[in-house]
Structure formats: C-alpha cells, structure tokens
C-alpha cells in the first residue's frame, strides 16, 4: 500500500485532500457518506471536487451585502483560475482540487459554467418563470459539479454525463426542499412562478403555510416532474463499473427517500422543511409519520416483488438491470414501511422455483444481493433499528451470500423498530412438509403425542418461528396469485394486486395499498369485525431419548 506522501506527492498535498474530506463531511454529510463507498484511491479526489464545490457555494452564500459577496467571489475565482493555469495553489482546498483536475484531466469548461452560475446567483436570488428556467439553473449549479466528478467513476461519454448531471439536478431539488423555510424567510423562492400562478398562489402564501390544498398540489406538481427525471437519471448506475455502482446507487436511493419524505409532508414542507437523510454521525432515525392520514395500518405486510425482468426488458436492458433496481426498491420500501408504522415487512426475494433460471441470471442476482449488504446496506438497516430474518432453506444458496445473510441476522437480532423477513430459497409447500417431518420425528421419539399437536407446534418448526400472520399481501406487476408464498401465514390476509412493476413500487403505492386495506372489514369467519383468532400456546416438548430430527435447511 502506498503512503500518503507517495500517493499525493507531498505532506502538504495530503493534508489538503484531508481538509477537502472534512469540508465535505461537515457541509454535506449524505454526499460524504456516499463517497465512503468509493474505492480508496478514488475517494480523496472525489472529496477534492466536492470540497471545492461546497466551499465555493459557501463563499457565495456567506453574509454581507451583495457587493461584499461579489468581491469575495471575484477573489476566489481569480485564485481558482490561477491555480488551474499554474497547476498549484497556496489555498489548501484549491491545492487538492487543482491537483485532481490536472491528474484526471477534468473538463475546465464545466468549472467555468459552475463558477458563472454561482456568480449570477450571488448577485441576486434567481426567479424562475418556468420549469425549464429552473432546470437550466440547477444544471449550471449542481448538475455541472456532478458532471465534473463523473470521470472519477469512469463516466465520460456525453450520454452518461447528461444522466449524471440530471442526478445532480435532482439532488439539488432535495437540498432546496430541505432549506425551504429558511430560503422563503430570506425572500428566496426557487419554485417556478408559473406553477404558483396556475394555483393562484403568491410567495407569501408559501411563507405563511396558508391554503394547504393548493400548497399540497404545488408539492405534487414538483414531485411528479422530478420523480420521472430521477428514474431517467437512475439508469446511470448500471453504466458504471461495479466498484463504483454502490456510490451511485446511494445517491439515487437518497434522492428517492427524500422525495418520499416530501410526499409525506406535502404542504407542511413549506413551514417545517426537511431534515437531511443522514447526519455526520450516521443514519437519522425518523419516527412514524404522525400525519400519515391512515386509519388502520397493518401489523404485517408481505410483498411478492414481481416485474423486475419485465421492467428491464421494457427499457432494453438485461434482467440483471431489473434485479439491481429491484434491490434498491426494497430498501426504499423498508424506509416507507418505517415511516407509515408497519412493524413486520416480508419480501419474497427468491423462491425455490427460481432455480430454473439461467446460471448467468442466478449468479448476477446473488451477486447483487450480496453487494447490497456488503456495501452499506447492512449498516443502513442496522442503523434504522431493523431486525432482519432469513426465511427459507439454507443449504443451497451461494455460501458467500448465505454467510452475509447469517451475519446480518446476528448483527440486527436485538433491533425492534421493524422486522424485515427475507424469504430466500423459499417455497411454502416445502416449508410445511419440513415442519410436518420435524413433528413426525418428535412424535416417533415420544417427545410429543400426535393428538396434542396444534398450530403453535407447527409454527415453531417453520423456517422463521414466530412470524406473525400476514395482514396485507401485496403483489406487484399485475399478477394475481400467491405463487407458493407463505400459505400458512396468508390464511386471513387481505390481498392487493398492484400493476406497478417492482422497481417502480414505492411509498405512494404502499400508502394506497394500506388505504385499500383500511377500507376492508376483516371478520375472520365471524359476523362482526374484530381481532384475529386467539393463538393456541405452544406445548413444551417432552424429553425423550434421542433428539428430534430437524428438517433440511433449518438452523
């Protein structure tokens, strides 16, 4: 391994890179945490670009009169241009930035575009007449900085650079919603005026939070546009080499989660704003959203995640593309379930019938699952207080994936905010057969009398003992069957079949499914709505010679 001096050339340059990392960490914790997923040789250079952009933005926003800010920016820009010309700088942030630009041959025209946009913004808050005006500004301010660092992660073609820029625009929209109350109080409104006029709104209505119906519609208009654009930008993740994909995926996931949060807050975002997704210290746990406006929330939601391959095919992409998108959709839905108050969430991730797929697809699917846990997913779930359980056979899955799932179970075993059950190599009939075999073995040894066997005895021999009955089953992509999924636990479940392919399923679809669930009367075979049937307690297993024989896949 090379020392810092060998890698950077001098102790001063190494310290400059470290300073840029600290600037990024303190100024934009989500970006800093995402950059930690990059390969170590690339990470300092990403910090240099991000630190430069954040420092430049801070200079433009710092207090004082317009003339004072313009003078500060002019001095800063002069130092930037001189450093880029000479290849060095006496300013510690610029020293690392200039070194990165020279080493990676970054596009200097993009740097000029970024500087010019911030200079115009400093002269006076921009007023956007149309959505196109807003996008031009976002492109110049943040899209340009995202395009600038794209070569660091191997993205250089015009098509890919445009997508990276679009991802930056979406990220800037998130930042503006986070700062919305503060900006409005300072007389800055970054929303298109045409949208306000269409709803009969004035900026003063946004400041006071009045006319909630119109404000909620204004939020919906923004999200409808930006979610479409974010979906387009998301495709950039599959265009990068695998070692860079986790970084890009986290950026996309973070934007999606914040858009979901805006959808929850609706008109309240104008007066309450939006806290950043993560802090410098780690993931921020958000309590159940008190204003979810849901009369009844199911305790246990199970999801058949269908449509990954069809979604990918519609976009002219391989099946692995859809599985990758589906993996991150699962993480988005975990966050949505937490915010809506669901306590148990179960995913049908891989069935016993899926073994008939091609070996290439299976290899890609298992690699995607493993990557999601190894590159930040496990820590993210643990930080949210999620307990993870594996439901399924454990003797056929790729050993590295099986080890990762087992370690994740152990890591999160004491968490209690939400229980996430991943059904991997799961088949409902096979589960019942194995439970029956285990009970038969107990009866053969005299550990239990056949006449005493009850539902609770069968439950304790399931793959995930104690898994509660499913209240709501959701299947995506329009199919209307349960496909051998949790037949024991679905006995009294309400079912919702959503036409949305799994990669497009998110908080809004989950909330709609829960709304449908809340409108149904669950009678459990009786004449009046009421709670579920009383559960028969498990009988203790009587000691006997020998040990009951566990079924295959049990541990």
- Nearest-integer average pLDDT: 88
Radius of gyration: 27 Å
Largest sheet: 6 strands, parallel
- Helix content range: 55-70%
Q: Order of SSEs, N→C?
A: HHHHHHHHHHHHHHHEEEHHEHEHEHHEEH
Compact overview of the structure:
The chain has 555 residues and is an alpha/beta fold. 55% of the residues lie in helices and 7% in strands. The strands form 2 sheets. Strands 5-6-4-3-7-8 form a 6-stranded parallel beta sheet, sandwiched between helices.
List the helices and strands and how they pair.
Blueprint: H1 4-8, H2 11-27, H3 29-35, H4 43-61, H5 66-86, H6 92-104, H7 108-123, H8 131-149, H9 158-178, H10 180-185, H11 193-198, H12 203-208, H13 212-234, H14 245-265, H15 269-272, E1 278-279, E2 282-283, E3 300-304, H16 308-314, H17 319-340, E4 344-351, H18 359-383, E5 386-391, H19 399-411, E6 418-426, H20 428-445, H21 455-459, E7 472-475, E8 494-497, H22 507-518
Parallel strand pairs: 3-4, 3-7, 4-6, 5-6, 7-8
Antiparallel strand pairs: 1-2
Helix pairs in contact: 2-3, 2-4, 2-6, 3-14, 4-5, 4-6, 4-7, 5-6, 5-7, 7-8, 8-9, 9-13, 9-14, 13-14, 14-17, 16-17, 17-18, 18-19
Q: What does it look like?
A:
55% of the residues lie in helices and 7% in strands. The longest helix has 25 residues. It is α/β, with parallel strands linked by helices and 555 residues long.
Which labels suit this protein?
single chain; 555 residues; alpha/beta; six-stranded parallel sheet; two-stranded antiparallel sheet; 22 helices; 8 strands; 55% helix; disordered N terminus; disordered C terminus
